[in-house]
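Please decode residue identities from the backbone states below.
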């Protein structure tokens, strides 16, 4: 392996991707599965630690030991105002240790806890190793993106994660979703749309089968994955199919979701998007046409 390399890493809540400046343009580096993004998932079993797609694909049958959406925990104290909401939404246990939030899982047949920085380091190391394999060069530096609302301690936490993975961070920049801090809504993202869909189908299932899925982590994990896929399908299609065999016991979920219904379910979120877009256009002296 020859030469040193500086890469860019977009460290998202649900996905991570790496890029490099090559042939006078930015190239996204595919992972070893040929995909341009890698799920930001870590899973623990009796024998292994799984990362990326391998972790995400088994999440529905190993909900308590599959970690995702942990990025907001990095650099925080356990008594921070954001933590109770994270605990409520997480299928995995979040505990207090030395005043910090830790994820508690069963790993190698015993209870084990990991800091959010430990988890992030696993993913960053995975991305580093994949990039080195793909490009045949050693990765020594990386530009990392973070949300613009990240505090000093959270930014320092990300730097420490990269240093632990053997990567120097010459610069941290705000991610593209919040490039203009004056316009961003830090509480609005793709997960909000997913959550509305999940709640819709929890109520749909309850109305049709008299069963409340919300207390079943395995069912909720499978439903959340299907809702995310349906949301993506509706970006290019007028309809998407939700089809989950034996979602609860032997009861299947089969439903066709239209883009119109999706937009109606998320109308309040879309309204929240309109104001910052209008402000951006006004400040840039541009018209929507």
């Amino acid at each position: 392996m020859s030469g040193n390399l500086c890469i860019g890493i977009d460290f998202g809540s649900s996905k991570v991707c790496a890029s490099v400046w090559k042939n006078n343009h930015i190239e996204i580096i595919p992972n070893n599965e040929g995909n341009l993004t890698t799920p930001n998932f870590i899973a623990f079993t009796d024998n292994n630690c799984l990362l990326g797609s391998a972790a995400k694909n088994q999440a529905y049958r190993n909900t308590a030991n599959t970690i995702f959406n942990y990025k907001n925990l990095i650099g925080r104290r356990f008594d921070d105002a954001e933590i109770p909401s994270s605990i409520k939404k997480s299928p995995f246990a979040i505990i207090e240790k030395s005043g910090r939030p830790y994820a508690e899982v069963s790993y190698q047949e015993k209870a084990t806890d990991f800091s959010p920085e430990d988890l992030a380091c696993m993913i960053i190391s995975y991305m580093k190793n994949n990039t080195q394999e793909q490009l045949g060069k050693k990765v020594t530096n990386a530009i990392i993106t973070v949300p613009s609302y990240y505090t000093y301690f959270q930014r320092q936490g990300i730097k420490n994660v990269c240093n632990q993975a053997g990567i120097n961070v010459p610069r941290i920049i705000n991610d593209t979703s919040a490039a203009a801090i004056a316009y961003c809504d830090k509480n609005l993202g793709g997960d909000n749309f997913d959550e509305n869909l999940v709640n819709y189908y929890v109520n749909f299932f309850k109305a049709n089968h008299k069963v409340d899925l919300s207390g079943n982590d395995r069912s909720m994990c499978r439903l959340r994955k299907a809702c995310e896929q349906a949301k993506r399908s509706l970006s290019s299609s007028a309809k998407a199919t939700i089809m989950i065999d034996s979602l609860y016991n032997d009861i299947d979920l089969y439903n066709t979701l239209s883009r119109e219904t999706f937009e109606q379910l998320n109308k309040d979120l879309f309204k929240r998007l309109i104001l910052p877009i209008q402000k951006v256009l006004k400040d840039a002296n541009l018209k929507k046409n």
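Observation: The longest helix spans residues 116-135.
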